[in-house]
Design brief:
Rossmann fold, 6-stranded mixed β-sheet, 18 strands, binds adenosine-5'-triphosphate, binds magnesium ion
Length: about 675
């Protein structure tokens, strides 16, 4: 049991928690949510004993083993797989002790240690680590590569694998999905559902939270509020609470107006002065209640872009990649012919590691082409948000410093006051704008990086995973701002909602080439599942690009194959079947989960309907509550609809997999004949 009682936590000038209480039962799966900078990561630091509460107590059983994800990855020569196994520290300790015992020829101790290693599942450790890494998107080849050879995002995955390897009673995960693509996210979801310990996970990803958690803890106004149920349930409950608060607020406004008019009328009259005074006191007291109501949501917009050339830039037969520095160059995407016309809005697709970021860097002019020619036309103003943009900020400097050192977009000098009010509009008020950013939360840094780009008035936006770290509200603000942006856009994002709302066309990087993807995101998901089936895409390729269509199974019957070939073929078929069933699994479990959620929601809805059918709900005092019930009902209906739509889509997906499988078999029998 974790218990926080009357905890007050300050960081710098900011009070994050004030007399907050919380209890979490063993085995519960908790989603910790709250706006950027509200104190989620700080709360983790508190639980890990890295921070101390200014007041109050934090308690959980002393024998609990706590696992969390390291934020740094040392640049080790150690193979990725060994690094993952290192996460099981008990195992590594036992192994070291065994080596000592062997060196000392201590037979008794060796026997004990072998037994202990058996208890620690030592003999399955490597295969468990392999499964973890495979689930997180590593190929078997990559598992043997040194840790140092992986890029930032992949190192975070390695750290996550280490954490999941570590046997623990309490698992603390701070935004684990940030560096993952969709299939890895689904895999982590499954893993976490089976995790037997107590889990607290911070995430801004609603679908992910819904899949994993059964309790939501919201950092709200310096308190910890606990809600039973998943994230959607939390949203519904909170929406109802907001409506109630709004109703109370309105009621209070009416009372205030009444008091004010009383005061106005009687202040001047000596006989009534005392009464007026007491009313004034009352009014002052009320003011403390008022700010409870909903704050206006954060929003921003891109300014009208500077005039753009057309085309903005052209790549002719460009090979994008990295200079070998002595050795051969490493080409990631080859033969790119691409001309970016003004006003185009592309979503750039491709699995992790396919080369999206390399391509974007080349378009941004940050990476020189290895071959071919890149022409950037005069007047091009690029706003580039790199995948790890926040790392490029100077942590010892302030937001104001960052902004001031950018040349003013239109060449005119700008007053400091204007810079400050600009930062204010991005939710960096007074002190926050002038102090160093070193202690900013992840989301606050990401928001600053975004503000710096908006300031430059770009006519071409190149955004590589811009939503990592951003809370839901800021994400929504970005979506709206991008939808209204009048310039040209190339966007990489695993946020499907953002892609849908802001881009018109898709490009895909796969198998080392860039091409148009003539489908929508659902087609892309199909393609993902299918290439997983096809084993990395060499036969499949994206469905949509037409020239690939002929390359799928079911083509010309081949002459009867010699035995060795037939064996190889059988083996491929068996592998295919396995892959297919692996592809079905995440879908099936999602379907199951959806069905559970649907059942729960339907039950809740019947209960609500019954409440609403009760005449007393409509009488006098019940009115406020009624409003809340109605909102709840509306939410439930919407939510159910969403779930049903997804359920249907997944069913179709499963059917498609089924027929794809049969297609394979027919192709095979035809061949065998
Ligand atoms: N060492 C520090 N000194 C002063 N202030 C700090 C320090 N560390 C963090 N803060 C401030 O405390 C607040 C909470 O930070 P924290 O990282 O806990 O937020 P968070 O909820 O995890 O946010 P995000 O969603 O962006 O990750 C932030 O406003 C941050 O600027
Ligand atoms: Mg955080």
């Amino acid at each position: 049991m974790i218990r926080l009682s009357q905890v007050t936590l300050r960081r710098g000038a900011k009070v994050l928690l004030e007399a907050a209480d919380l209890s979490v039962n063993p085995g519960e799966k908790v989603g910790l949510v709250g706006a950027n900078g509200s104190g989620k990561s700080s709360l983790f630091a508190l639980l890990r004993d890295e921070l101390h509460a200014d007041r109050g107590d934090v308690d959980y059983p002393a024998r609990w083993r706590v696992a969390h994800v390291a934020q740094e990855t040392p640049a080790l020569a150690r193979p990725a797989l060994d690094y993952a196994v290192d996460g099981d520290t008990r195992l590594r300790r036992l192994e070291a002790e065994l080596a000592d015992a062997e060196a000392a020829h201590d037979g008794v101790r060796m026997g004990e240690l072998h037994a202990a290693l058996g208890d620690a599942d030592a003999y399955t450790a490597r295969s468990r680590a392999e499964r973890l890494l495979a689930g997180l998107g590593f190929t078997h080849g990559q598992m043997d590569e040194p840790v140092a050879s992986f890029s930032g995002g992949w190192r975070m995955r390695l750290n996550l694998a280490q954490t999941l390897m570590c046997p623990s009673d309490l698992l603390l995960l701070d935004e684990p999905t940030n560096h993952l693509d969709l299939d890895a996210i689904l895999w982590v979801e499954e893993w976490l559902k089976r995790y037997p310990g107590t889990l607290i996970v911070v995430s801004h990803d609603r679908d992910f939270l819904d899949g994993v958690v059964d309790v939501v803890v919201h950092i709200d106004n310096r308190k910890l509020r606990r809600y039973g149920g998943n994230y959607s349930a939390f949203e519904a409950q909170r929406a109802a609470a907001v409506v109630l608060a709004q109703a109370q607020y309105e009621k209070q406004q009416r009372e205030r107006a009444h008091l004010e008019s009383f005061i106005d009328r009687f202040r001047a009259k000596a006989t009534k002065a005392r009464q007026a005074q007491s009313r004034m006191k009352m009014l002052a007291r009320m003011e403390e209640l008022a700010p409870l109501h909903v704050t206006a949501p954060f929003s921003f917009e891109f300014r009208e872009p500077l005039k753009a050339p057309d085309p903005l830039l052209t790549l002719e037969d460009v090979d994008a990649g990295y200079r070998g520095g002595g050795g051969p160059d490493h080409v990631v995407v080859r033969g790119i012919r691409f001309s970016l016309r003004s006003g185009e809005r592309y979503g750039l697709l491709g699995v992790n590691g396919a080369g999206k970021s390399t391509l974007i860097k080349t378009i941004a002019g940050e990476l020189q082409p290895l071959a071919g020619r890149a022409t950037f036309n005069r007047g091009l103003a690029v706003g580039y948000f790199a995948q790890h943009q926040v790392d490029m900020l100077r942590y010892d400097e302030s937001p104001l410093w960052h902004l001031a050192r950018l040349a003013p977009p239109d060449g005119k000098s700008v007053r400091e006051q204007d810079l400050r009010s600009y930062l204010g509009s991005f939710n960096f008020p007074g002190d926050m704008a002038t102090g160093p950013i070193t202690n900013f939360s992840g989301g606050e840094k990401a928001r600053l990086a975004l503000a710096l780009i908006v300031w430059q008035r770009p006519n071409l936006l190149l955004l590589d995973e811009p939503t990592n770290h951003l809370d839901l509200e800021t994400r929504e603000a970005l979506t709206v701002a991008l939808a209204q942006f009048e310039g040209t856009l190339v966007l990489v994002s695993h946020d499907r909602h953002l892609l849908r709302a802001t881009t018109n066309e898709f490009l895909i990087v796969a198998d080392g080439v860039l091409r148009p993807f003539e489908g929508d995101l659902d087609d892309y998901r199909d393609w993902l599942f299918r290439t997983k089936l096809g084993g990395g895409g060499e036969a499949g390729g994206p469905v949509a690009p037409r020239e690939e269509a002929g390359a799928v199974p079911g083509r010309e019957p081949a002459p009867a194959a010699p035995a060795a070939e037939r064996r190889a073929e059988k083996r491929t078929q068996a592998e295919d079947r396995q892959r297919r069933s692996a592809a079905r699994k995440p879908i099936e479990s999602r379907v199951k989960r959806l069905e559970e959620s649907m059942a729960k929601l339907t039950a809740r809805r019947s209960a609500l309907d019954a409440q609403l059918a009760d005449p007393s709900a409509y009488a006098g005092e019940g009115r406020d509550a009624l409003k809340a019930l109605l909102v709840d009902q509306a939410y439930l209906v919407r939510e159910l609809e969403e779930l049903e739509t997804e359920w249907l889509a997944l069913q179709e997906e499963l059917e498609r997999l089924e027929t794809a499988g049969q297609g394979d078999i027919t192709a095979v029998t035809r061949r065998a004949r």
